[in-house]
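Troubleshooting entry. The earlier prediction with protoporphyrin IX containing FE gave an output that would not parse, so I re-checked the input for stray whitespace and re-submitted. Clean input:
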Amino acid sequence: MTNHQITLVKNTWGMVASIDPVTVGGLFYNRLFEIAPPIRAMFRTPVAEQSKKLLTMIGYVINKLDKLEDIIEEVAKLAKGHVQYGVKAEHYSIVGEALLWTLEKGLAEHWTEEVKEAWVLCYTTLANAMIAAAEDVQAAA
Ligand code: HEM
């Protein structure tokens, strides 16, 4: 990602993070379960609590976008947990779709083509890191 794209993601995330996390999370999970109904059964934690965890984690990763290598171990740990939850590589694009849709709703007129491209790159980078870490665990098992 370019520095400009990182700035775009950080600034727009700041806008979304100022909205109530339960509202943002509600939008996200409703959309996710609408796109892929079977995914609902994988979630045990109540949506409100789950939303806070997810948003905190995204915020954390975004803060480190310019030095992802610093948090690679945490990303790997998160990915391993996801293997236990039954998450497969193909789920990442579904979650990405729900996330982009949520950002579009939350950002309204601030959701431009340029912002979208920056977010696609950001999510793809994170998702690919998680998928790679999950593959390592599976290969070792
Ligand atoms: C970059 C993408 C993702 C991020 C940043 C993320 C983040 C998180 C976080 C922070 C948690 C809280 C528990 C923990 O620390 O393990 C969690 C739990 C979970 N995530 Fe993700 N996740 C991502 C992708 C996915 C995908 C693709 C799925 C597939 C459907 C998924 C399904 C779940 C499930 C089932 C749980 C456990 C829920 C529960 O305890 O009820 N996540 N995720």
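This one parsed fine. The chain has one domain: 3-140.
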